[in-house]
Amino acid sequence: MSLLTPKGVGAIATVEVSGPRAWELARTLFRPAGKPLPDAPELHRFWFGTLGEGAGDEVVLAVAGESTVEVHCHGGRRVVRWVIDQFLAHGCAEREPTRSVSVLDLLVRAPTLRTAGILLDQLHGTFDSAVRRILASPDLAGLPELARFASVGRHLVTPWKVVIAGPPNVGKSSLVNALAGYQRTVVSDVAGTTRDAVRVQLAFDGWPVELTDTAGLRDAVGLEAEGIERGRRVLSEADVVVWVMDGTSEKMIWPGDDIPVAKLVAIVNKSDAIQGWGPDANAGDARELMLVSAKTGHGVPKLVAEIVRCLIPDPPPPGAAVPYSPELADRVEAAVAATDRGEAVRLLRDCLTAG
Prior knowledge:
355 residues; alpha/beta; Gyrase A, domain 2; Rossmann fold; 3 domains; six-stranded antiparallel β-sheet; six-stranded mixed β-sheet; 12 strands
């Protein structure tokens, strides 16, 4: 017996009882509101009634398999515990949920409809079926395709990290507010106003993103210097860095070699105030630039699209098998990299038992 729904308070909880005595116990503990339960379980049938002796508690009983029944009850912790105790008192053993329950747990925590849809596909067995097909193939055909969406699988619940960085007074905080759609950070003409990393949770095209505003990078002392150092640490963990430059400045200040960046999107902010600026103003630097105005919103949708393209250049189509957690993504990628077929097979089998 196990709790299929995530632990905690919810509207409804589901307790699964499986084994050769599952239907016998259901008939002992459950009283249907209408006709008595049949002698043998009828697959995919549902009954409303009362569980337990005396007043008991109203539940829905469902037949999920020849030797598996489900009790759908109120999701309060005490009610769920009481339902489980009813079966424990009649000889059932409580067990930890299987890995499919952790898919449910992830699904409950999915921050967007898009990632929830991917997790729902995996809950229905898409990933497991793909792994079994690969294991049944003599040459593990399909393994590279399975690893193709490993990066996406790592961020179905945990957001991608996008960091807004650049020199002081280029409009980083204004850009964060424009991307968020509301004033999340303080905007000021005084250099050094932002002294710590300010984070905001967003969704870009249905993908979860943690957007971070950092202190302007320059030589400084005191509290501002501490904020700049924290900003550099955040940069080292970023999936994408949006480097902001000032379109009203005579010189474009690019990141130095000492600033670690994963994927860089360079933009020129304050495009609404640019007068006579052009490629020649960049002193011959041929790197591609994107014009944006945090004030008017010009170029912001294009910037969002570019960030999404950098993060997810190859989004999975509906129904695709996706290694839906960081652990599974690591195993699948390790299986691709394995030089020994036996090691690859072991890693794939671990994907079916990992929880």
